[in-house]
Design brief:
mainly alpha; two-stranded antiparallel ribbon; 20 helices; transmembrane; transferase; Dolichyl-phosphate-mannose-protein mannosyltransferase
Length: about 475
């Protein structure tokens, strides 16, 4: 029997998918924020750390502040700090532990799984929604990044529920539904600016064809975009030269990038998204064959796939980090779910082959993340040892100088400081000018000549820690 004939068992299947998705995401749940993409995780957590004691100071508490590149918290141009603010409140109530951040990441990822089913059910079919939710739960990419302390889990949850809400409004066009859909869309763009890619998809889902909907389209657009515009303008002008994300990455890594990371992109697609990507391509062909222009749900997914393709070429070919693939995971699993739904045929038993294929693919995804994603959970104990020593044996107002760019030590030592990011000779010159108290030797940073100069000039007082000013 196909999934479409399960009737009352649908809720049970969805609960099972959510439970299995949660179990997968609990791997490494007690790890410090030093595993893969530790830099971005420490950024998110350090913003939360800088909010402690100021949680009611609106709106200043919502301006992102990081621990590096200064002797105090530095204002930076980043996305709206949903995650850091929740984490700061949790630490205030229950104490500072890394576990709370991972649990918040898992909660948002489970919300995304539920939203994937809801959107699939409304825009495609109940069976397609279940398959899409199952694929999202088991994809190695979304599994690992469903338990990280980064804005991605929050952005994914807002995004899929924003699309589900606009479809719900189309089916029940009340003012409250439209306001709710607008707020969710604004939340998606605030959580991650690149989520603007789903805004045209939402417009198509809610307002195609446009007959007698111009006023409501204008209201939805205004409500969805006004808050993101105000917020990103605020942090852009407020951060000034300290800008780290909105203009920094886009201008340097993307606009000036070589676009030569095709091999890495292929590897990331293969290991992170796997065979469901092939099912998604089949789904595109099936939708076109079924004359997608007659169905706004099909047309929206085709548009989403087209935008995702442009995103791959413009962004992912220039930035060799696999978490940039996360925004395309949702259209891939939805198209894959649609393929299995259509393949399943009618409700007279023809769904069995599709069911078998789907279960086999889910099993392969589990094997894939076991074989190829294990290294992403590993972390360097030396970083944590250094940071703990610094927190226990240095003054609370000490300023650190890190020998390399990764800033995680500053978060774990609860100190502010600077990073040496230029080559060895220039880094030595910078070290003489920076008003720091301690130099921290990060693993695998700098050459032998640099450290010979350091050891001849400064005394080592801790594990890879050198005193700079005789304090």
């Amino acid at each position: 029997m196909g999934l479409g004939g399960m009737g009352r068992r649908v809720n049970g299947i969805l609960v099972l998918i959510l439970i299995l998705g949660a179990v997968l995401r609990f791997k490494g749940v007690t790890n410090p924020y030093l595993d893969d993409q530790g830099w971005r995780q420490a950024d998110t957590a350090s913003m939360a750390l800088n909010m402690l004691g100021h949680l009611g100071d609106f709106p200043d508490v919502l301006f992102p502040m990081l621990n590096y590149d200064g002797a105090g918290p530095q204002p930076v141009e980043l996305e709206f700090p949903f995650f850091p603010y929740l984490l700061a409140w949790t630490w205030t109530l229950f104490g500072w532990q890394d576990l709370w951040g991972r649990l918040w990441g898992i909660c948002f990822s489970l919300l995304t799984i539920g939203g994937t089913y809801q959107f699939g059910r409304l825009a495609l079919s109940e069976r397609a929604g279940l398959w899409a939710a199952a694929f999202y739960a088991f994809l190695p990419l979304t599994t690992y990044y469903g338990r990280v302390v980064m804005p991605e889990p929050v952005a994914q949850a807002f995004s899929i529920w924003a699309l589900a809400a606009i479809v719900s409004w189309r089916n029940n066009p009340t003012r409250m539904q439209l306001w709710g859909a607008s707020i969710l869309m604004a939340g998606a763009v605030l959580a991650k600016l690149p989520q603007l890619m789903i805004f045209p998809v939402a417009l198509l889902l809610g307002f195609y064809p446009l007959q007698k909907k111009i006023g409501k389209l204008g209201l939805y657009s205004f409500l969805s975009l006004v808050l993101p515009m105000l917020y990103y303008s605020w942090v852009h002008f407020g951060a000034g030269e300290a800008s780290q994300f909105v203009s920094g990455i886009l201008s340097h890594q993307v606009m000036e990038g070589s676009g030569g990371y095709g091999e890495i992109l292929y590897k990331n697609l293969k290991s992170g998204l796997g065979l469901p990507l092939l099912l998604a391509l089949m789904g595109l062909a099936l939708m076109i064959q079924k004359k997608a222009l007659k169905n706004e749900g099909y047309l929206a997914l085709l548009l989403w796939a087209g935008i995702s393709s442009v995103y791959l070429v413009v962004i992912c070919l220039r930035i060799p980090l696999d978490y940039y693939l996360i925004p395309i995971a949702l259209p891939i699993v939805l198209l894959a779910g649609y393929t299995l739904d259509v393949w399943g045929g009618d409700r007279e038993g023809n769904g069995v082959p599709a069911f078998v294929v789907g279960i086999v693919l889910i099993g392969l995804l589990w094997v894939n993340q076991t074989l190829y994603y294990g290294s992403k959970y590993q972390w360097n104990e030396e970083l944590l040892t250094q940071a703990q020593w610094l927190r226990q044996h240095t003054e609370a107002d000490s300023v650190l100088v890190l020998s390399g760019p990764p800033p995680m030590t500053l978060y774990y030592s609860q100190r502010y400081g600077y990073r040496l990011i230029r080559d060895d000779s220039q880094a030595w010159e910078d070290l003489q000018k920076i008003p720091g108290d301690y130099l921290v030797a990060l693993p695998d940073s700098r050459g032998e000549d640099f450290w010979e100069q350091v050891e001849s000039a400064y005394s080592q007082v801790g594990p890879g820690v050198y005193q700079l000013n005789g304090k």
